[in-house]
Amino acid sequence: MKDLKRMRERFIRDESATRMGNLASDLLRLSRWVQAGHNDKANVDLMREIAWLMEWSGDLASAELADMQREICRRHRVWPVEQVRHILALRASQMSNRILEWPGLFEQISPNGKQKPQSSP
In whole angstroms, what separates CA 68 from the centre of its chain? Predict the structure, then answer.
């Protein structure tokens, strides 16, 4: 429980673009682990972590992110099912790409990784 609390504090401390980038990275890692036949317990742990990261992204909440979280949770509950392994790998990769495509997600980040000040309208 302490690890979960520490992980949440570290995650929400980051700027929104960084959080979404980390989430996209974890989804891509899940896709690659599943494709490579990585340890099933590690896959389940990563799915659980991804679901928590999505939960903690409440300030960036969207119906699409909530749908992604529900899908990850459903797959987590039935893992490992060999017949859906390739589907999970594909969906995790698609989710990662979709998050990275969200409008304005990375516009606020400068080349040195610092958040750019937002201009006034």
Answer: 9
pLDDT tens readout for residues 71-97:
999 988 888 888 888 999 999 999 999
With vertex at residue 104, the alpha carbon angle to CA 109 and CA 73, rounded to the nearest 5 degrees, is: 100
In 53-83, which positions are buried (b, 16+ CB within 10 angstroms) versus exposed (e)? bbebbeebeeeebeebbeebeebbeebeeee
DSSP 105: T
Q: What angle in degrees, to the nearest 10, is found between the helix axes of 63-78 and 40-55?
A: 150
Task: State yes or no: cis peptide before 111, omega within 30 of 0.
Answer: no
Q: Do residues 24 and 82 touch, judged by C-beta distance below 8 A?
A: no
Residues 6+ apart with CB under 8 A from 102: 20
* DSSP at 69: H
What does pTM read for this prediction? 0.81
Q: Where are the domains of the chain?
A: 2-100
Q: Where does residue 8 rank: exposed (0-12), middle (13-18), buried (19+ CB within 10 A)?
A: middle
